[in-house]
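mind reviewing this stuff:

——
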Amino acid sequence: MIKNLLFLLLLVFCFSCGEEYVPKPKAELRLEYPIAKYVDAGLELPFTFEKNLLATKVASKQLKSPTKSYGVNLEYPTLKGTIFLTYKAIEKDKKNLKDFLRDAQKFTLEHTKKADEIPAYPFENKQRKVYGMLSEVKGNVASPAQFYVTDSVNHFLTGSLYFYAKPNYDSILPAANYLQKDIKRIMETVTWK
């Protein structure tokens, strides 16, 4: 009886799995993004810049503010992200420039609670009179990149990158790196009117 039971268990065990187990090979996620093609944003604003054609939804509107202000959203549906731009005019006495700079830097520093590191890269283009800073926020944060540029006289532009996903640094890093190149292109091509 025990022999029959062992034979039956062996038979069930042998025929219970029909497939042969093959371990999965080691692999890394491979994300490929198209080569960026830049064109003039074509917006009626106090400044111009070039945008990536991958930003298919572009919206701008005048904001309610004591100074002339505009908001611009560059949406990247395929990457599930948006670059938000805010333009503010500097008053003739330049009193609000300090406030704008302080607010832009404060916004970046608010991420220090969750950020692993926040390297900042100064930007200067004397011919176009564009001066600013790009901050890369590393870690599980809501906005992995922020920047501002100004001519220190009339114009101030700030921007930030957001994704429509839970902030998981490893997962969004390839898309964040791709869009940071677009942010750099915006900074490099800003022309004040």
The mean pLDDT is 88.
